[in-house]
Amino acid sequence: MISGKMTKAINEQINKELYSSYLYLAMSAQAEALGLKGFANWFKVQAAEENEHAMKFFDYLGEQGARVKLAAIDQPPVEFKSPKAMFEETLKHEKTVTASINALADLALAEKDHATGSFLRWFVDEQVEEEANAQEIVDWLKLAGEAGNALLFLDSKLRARKAE
Ligand code: FEO
Fold it and tell me: What is the pLDDT of residues 42-65, one digit of tens each?
């Protein structure tokens, strides 16, 4: 059985993961409106992954006999300045999620909650990948600059992303 404090923190993390899903879905909608179907696909797959992250925490609370309490999900922005701004926001957002996962891992350590510490290891590794993926695309977009053909090339690359 996990502590009340840990249960509360994981419930907050469920909300953060669901907000992440919402945020990337908002980005997908804008990319679709811009005709960038590859970008739209990438963000849609990302949104589905975030939903899976929320479900991992959801299931973990259930396994621990702790109660899931769902809270309202904030509204994400409707407009993003550019495709580059979307990925810069993605990177910034993933860094806040990493900090949040690290805070959970710190709490598990402080509470000598080895089960939760072990469960969180997957998320610690996942965040390294999430940040690296976003950083790589920010770098590509910086290189592409204003060049429309480079953007379309990147769009075709992002179209290839599939749900894992
Ligand atoms: Fe669930 Fe992108 O962190």
Answer: 999 999 999 999 999 999 999 999
- Give the position, in ligand 1's atom list, of the atom nearest the Cα of 94: 2
pTM of the model: 0.95
Question: How far does residue 149's CA lie from ligand 1's centre (Å)?
Answer: 30
Structural domain including 148 reads: 4-159
Instruction: Assess contact for 49 and 104: CB atoms under 8 A.
Output: no
- Please tell me the distance between residue 14's alpha carbon and the centre of ligand 1 in angstroms: 10
Exposure class string for 94-103: b at 16+ Cβ within 10 A, else e = beebbebbee
Give the number of domains in the chain. 1
Query: For residue 164, is it within any domain?
Result: no
pLDDT, one tens digit per residue, over 59-85 is: 999 999 999 999 999 999 999 999 999
Q: Is residue 113 part of a domain?
A: yes
Which phi and psi (to 5°) does residue 78 adopt?
Answer: -90, -35
CA distance 9 to 106: 11
Q: Does residue 144 lie in a domain region?
A: yes
Look at residue 32 and tell me if it is in a domain: yes
